[in-house]
Amino acid sequence: MTSPAQTDKGMPRRKPLLVGLGVVLAALALNVALGLAQPGLLLGHPWTLGPTVVRAEVVVSNASGVHAFRIDRGRAISVSQQSIVLRERDGLRVTIAVAAGARVLLDGVPVSLASIPRNAHIEALRDGDAPAKRITAVTSR
């Protein structure tokens, strides 16, 4: 006789849930790895992690070591040549230093950081507390 926590074949009912969760996590890890290796390979658009994600930290281990990539999202409050100030969806105001050679895209087109308009939707990628090396801005949704 099986317990209520098991199916007729004796397999735990949690197994499909864990397998599904593993598939989702693997897809997210692949998306981040592809985006870091080649930004043009991102699966979807700049908001691939979903529109409700406010910020994320993704830890990646590769040949160059372990990296804790930080992804910040929000609306541009102000932009200078070296930094951008965002208001994230939860109301947090964050100032992000931007590396001199950062890749900056506005609606998919390479631009200077100063070209990003106020209120644009921003996604900034940085390695830990280092200056951001990629800024993706979208003016309309």
Describe the protein in words.
This protein is α+β, with helices and mostly antiparallel strands and 141 residues long. It folds into two domains: 1-44, no CATH class; 48-138. Helix content is 17%, strand content 41%. The protein contains one helix and seven strands, in the order αβββββββ. The chain has one helix at residues 14-37; strands spanning 55-62, 65-79, 83-87, 93-106, 109-110, 121-127, 132-138. The protein has a five-stranded mixed β-barrel with strand order 2-3-4-7-6. A hairpin with a 5-residue loop joins strand 3 (83-87) and strand 4 (93-106). The longest helix has 24 residues, at 14-37. The chain is globular and about 50 Å long. Mean pLDDT is 78; it is low at 37-47.
Number of strands: 7
Structural class: alpha+beta
Query: What is the helix content?
Result: 10-25%
Distance between the termini: 55 Å
Low-confidence stretches: 37-47
Rg is 19 Å
How many structural domains in the coordinates?
2
Main sheet properties: 5 strands, mixed, barrel
Strand ordering within the main sheet: 2-3-4-7-6
Give a quick precis of the structure.
With 141 residues, the protein is an alpha+beta fold.
Indicate the topology:
Blueprint: H1 14-37, E1 55-62, E2 65-79, E3 83-87, E4 93-106, E5 109-110, E6 121-127, E7 132-138
Parallel strand pairs: 4-7
Antiparallel strand pairs: 1-2, 2-3, 2-6, 3-4, 4-5, 6-7
